[in-house]
Predict the 3D structure of the following.
Amino acid sequence: MSNNDSDRVPLMFRSQLEGRGKIQYAGDAGPASEWVEQWLECCPPVPESADKSVPLYKRGRTKSPVKMPEFGQGVETKQYTISWRLVTNSGQDEGMIRPIIGAKGLPFYPGSSMKGAFWRSCPPQKREGYCGGEVVEDGQGSAKPGILRFHGGFPADMSWGEKERLVDVVHSQQKRQVMENAVTSANVQISLYQCKLQFGISSNKQLGKQEWEEIWQIWEKALGHGIGSRISAGYGRMAEVKSADRILLSVNLSGCGLTSQLLNRTPEFRPNMFKAALRGHTLRLLAGVTDANTAQLLTKKLWGGIVETRDDTGAIIGQLGINFTAEELDFGEHRYYPTRNPVVMPTYDLQAGKLDIVNLNNRYPQKELKKFVTYLIKFSLLLGGFGKSWRRVDHSLFFPEYFKRNDKPAIGCHWKFNESSKNLYVTAANPDLSNITKFLAEGQQRAREWLTVNHLEPSHQVMAWREVWHPEKVEVWGRIAEDQHSSEAIKWFHEPYSKNQSIKQSDLTGKLNNIGRIWHRMCPRYLTTKNGELRQKRQEYVELLTIFPDKSDKTQDFLEFLQNQSDFIKLWPTEE
């Protein structure tokens, strides 16, 4: 076959080699997008997009212009809607994750996977009857089939076929942000966005209505644990199904900032950003009390990951996962003009959302696990935020004059606990912010306690990573701001903080392809009332700077300025 002839072979059937079909390329016109376009050409037509302003559970079924596959006679069916994305791996393409593809080019969830998920959620006394098992007669083992047949799940319509949504980018930032300022690359996977799936189950014996209801309850329990891959990052969750029996901690949040974009610049609010933040803080805290290998291993045991040894490589199923429900979410845009041509940056405004931390297995004691996770959540909201630009405060809220010439990009985010979760705020009753100092000091204590849970002893060595929660590696400074327009530090990122002294575009604040070493946060100032309730004091904020100092003169000069010429006080570490 000549080179020209080989170009006629669809990418799906080409070897994953450079120049042939290497679709692990993150570009909106790259092989991944071309692969999806070729795939959809062989599928039924895609209907008009659903109204995204209508909640998933209120949307009617989108009718396809062609008849979709249906299960055969005698198969009981139910439909469920993916709340965000579903990722499953066919295992057929090296270096690429994409669904199993069946009749008419449709992706499907295999019946074998469905049976496995059902079995794990089925009461032990009913497993053999429903799913089958091994029986021993006269010393000989044989397989006994169960009464149920699992037919898998198919899309109920073609709404999954929006090509701009299928190419899903996974871009790990952990090494770059926590360990070293290394170059990282994005990986591409194909996942189904907010798709309706119809699942089928049949029985080889007649069952009554009540028993079928019990069977579907077991299946919904399985769905509550998540299906497919990457469930710890929020994939594989169904909008109609809750996993209340596995929720370790629920937190109600609101936030605003810059939203993520897919390869073709389609905006998307991506719940996996919560796991990324919590995982990163887990690593920072543990790195302050133990060595690099142990910190990474314990983080993977909590949040999942790949463990590589000299002899083997294997995956660890993490203890924790996340499930996020956006209850009130709006999208917008920030438009600015660095030249005559505008640049558009998509934004989100989440008025109400619920973050569930899900306990995926029983490796750790519940009480100690919840204590550690609660500290992680409070730590995350005290010092930073989630998602893009989380190290900076939302400039549109705290520094609106920055945009007066309409030529500046949007920067930062702002996250808050909503009313039902406000008890998670770290209070700041005293002007010296002593409660915050006490909380920050607990970071190493909580990390040491987690080592004890894992039957390990702390290490006294100081890690060389760029962001480590150790008194020799980090400093936290704070002050009380009267209102949201009273931030002092926000201006220092854009103009000199004193005559002839600036940190703009330095290693401390960061620049293009170089992540900075400073976090800035405006945290609402909460007090405890005489009745024991928490309330925000007027419109005040606690302005916090978290700094991982380097040895440069600019950084040392800035720290000296904070000490001697600013309103900030050093909160941690303190002199003992």
Remarks:
- The mean pLDDT is 87.
- The longest strand covers residues 320-336.
- DSSP finds 14 helices and 25 strands in the chain.
- Residues 50 and 145 are 42 Å apart (CA to CA).
